[in-house]
Amino acid sequence: MPELPEVETIRRQLAPLVEGRRLEGVEILDPRWSRPLAPQVLEDALRGRRVEQLGRRGKYLVWHLDGELHLAQHLRMTGAVLADPDPEPAHTRVRIALGPRRGAKTRAERSALRLAIVDPRRFGTGELLVGEEALEEFFAARLGPEPLHERFTPAHLAAAARGRSAPIKALLLDQRRVAGVGNIYADEALFRARIHPRRPAGRLTLSDHERLRDAVIASLNAGIDARGATIDDFRHVDGVQGSFQHEFLVHRREGEPCPECGTQIVKMVVAGRGTYVCETCQPRPRAARRRRV
User: Fold this and answer.
1) Over the Cα atoms of the chain, what is R_g?
2) Fewer beta carbons under 10 A from the terminal one: N or C of the chain?
3) Model confidence at 293, in pLDDT bands (50, 70, 90)?
4) Can you tell me the distance from the alpha carbon of 259 to that of 126, in angstroms, rounded to the nearest whole number?
5) pLDDT at residue 110, as a whole number
């Protein structure tokens, strides 16, 4: 957390505020954020650069700056980006000062902008990448296809799952297979697809993969439409919470009735994560038969 919908929500809110502005000041208060670079090195590299575009890849915010510099920012578990916070929030790890927007027409665009990158647990990172080739190599080594991209197909899921005995939920959480899906949206997608999270990935049929592909996309789009889910720390750039937590079908609903059949939703641990499931709509997988010797 934040997952793809939360990061996309931040991107959509932040992009109109920062694109076309110059980074006039960057102050990294926590050296862990800039590793392996020292804070001063990253500050010097970013200062004076204009923000040409704010993008997203998986759970990363990607700052595209002039001079073919890119900053890949990961919020990890508890990160947030707040615009003009007053007073400055606790756990601020990075301060960014931006000048007026290029070609500013409104008073707001002519005004300076302050950002605070906040992270109570200090897991967030900012990685400097020089040139398009370095950017593509960085993400190619870490991320699979975007679920909202045409490359994310049932055939891709089937190929990624082939021969795997690990639970299907573990595959969904593997960012090298599916970029941007975390615990919340894996639970919601598996429920929509009527697939038990403990089902071995290699045992899914093509029909299962078709339902799962559609369910992942539907769950992510629902999260984006609700402007993300706030369970702990996620906030919009103006400090407002997301609302998707009020629309969960199974996640965090242990002991409540399933919205489809009324069976009590149960919680279990799958792939090391707390997992919520209706074992009527999502039948538990049968144990594999042992071969006779």
Assistant:
1) 21
2) C
3) very low
4) 40
5) 85
